[in-house]
Amino acid sequence: MTESQLESEPAAAAEIFGDRIDLARRFTASLAAEGELRGLIGPLELPRLWTRHVLNSAIAAPLFHGSVADVGSGAGLPGLVLAIARPDVEWTLIEPMERRVIWLNEQVESLELPNVRVMRARAEDVGLEFDVVTARAVSALRTLVPITAPLVKDGGELIFLKGHNVDAEITAAQKVLKKHKVTDVSVDVLGEGVLTETTRVFRARVR
């Protein structure tokens, strides 16, 4: 990585992270330095690392509460970023791949995040329940809901960071949503007027 490759920190970063901005900077620098080498991010992501990935995740931080599971945490997007922004929330990062679990544990230790635990597991094998389950860039709703809804406490939430096709995903997943008792479905658009790229968030209750 060269300094010219890594995207400059957007002005919105300090506003979003507040007094946690130094931790966000450290995590972003580590991901920029090691992410491609360790297979966590692609070679084209450095020029948009802050905008497309870190702030895209962090803008959703106010939505979370209680205990949260991040399914398929990968490089720590969104789980580690959200844990930095919300130290008052208990985060469980669920990731099946060993090399990614090693990375996540290294970051938790380096950043001294007592509100985070890392589990090497598939979502189907976790056997725990949480107030909220989240995921980002894992799969379409029709395959994501069946592995995440069972992890949500009765009345808890699914909060997924999705792309522009989220409305089409919802339409395609109607049978799955009904089967898993997923209700009150909505899509929030976050970051308008703050970020150069807004974040679309799928939200729903599991009852």
Helix and strand arrangement:
Blueprint: H1 12-17, H2 21-34, H3 49-58, E1 67-71, H4 79-85, E2 90-95, H5 98-111, E3 116-120, E4 130-136, H6 141-148, E5 152-162, H7 166-172, H8 174-179, E6 182-190, E7 199-206
Parallel strand pairs: 1-2, 1-4, 2-3, 4-5
Antiparallel strand pairs: 5-7, 6-7
Essential attributes:
single chain, 207 residues, alpha/beta, 7-stranded mixed sheet, 8 helices, 7 strands
Explained architecture:
The chain is of the alpha/beta class and 207 residues long. The chain has a seven-stranded mixed β-sheet. The chain starts with 11 loop residues before the first helix and ends with a strand. It has helices at 12-17, 21-34, 49-58, 79-85, 98-111, 141-148, 166-172, 174-179, and strands spanning 67-71, 90-95, 116-120, 130-136, 152-162, 182-190, 199-206. Helix 3 (49-58) crosses helix 4 (79-85). 35% of the residues lie in helices and 25% in strands. It contains eight helices and seven strands. The model has no long low-confidence stretch (mean pLDDT 95).
Q: Helix and strand succession?
A: HHHEHEHEEHEHHEE
From the spread of the alpha carbons, the general shape counts as globular
Strand content: 15-25%
What Rg do the Cα atoms give? 16 Å
Strands in their spatial order, largest beta sheet: 3-2-1-4-5-7-6
Nearest-integer average pLDDT: 95
User: Share of helix among residues?
Assistant: 25-40%
Structural category is alpha/beta
Number of helices: 8
- Cα end-to-end separation: 46 Å
Low-confidence regions: none
Q: Biggest β-sheet, characterized?
A: 7 strands, mixed
Question: How would you name the oligomeric state of the polypeptide chains in this document?
Answer: single chain
Number of beta-strand segments: 7
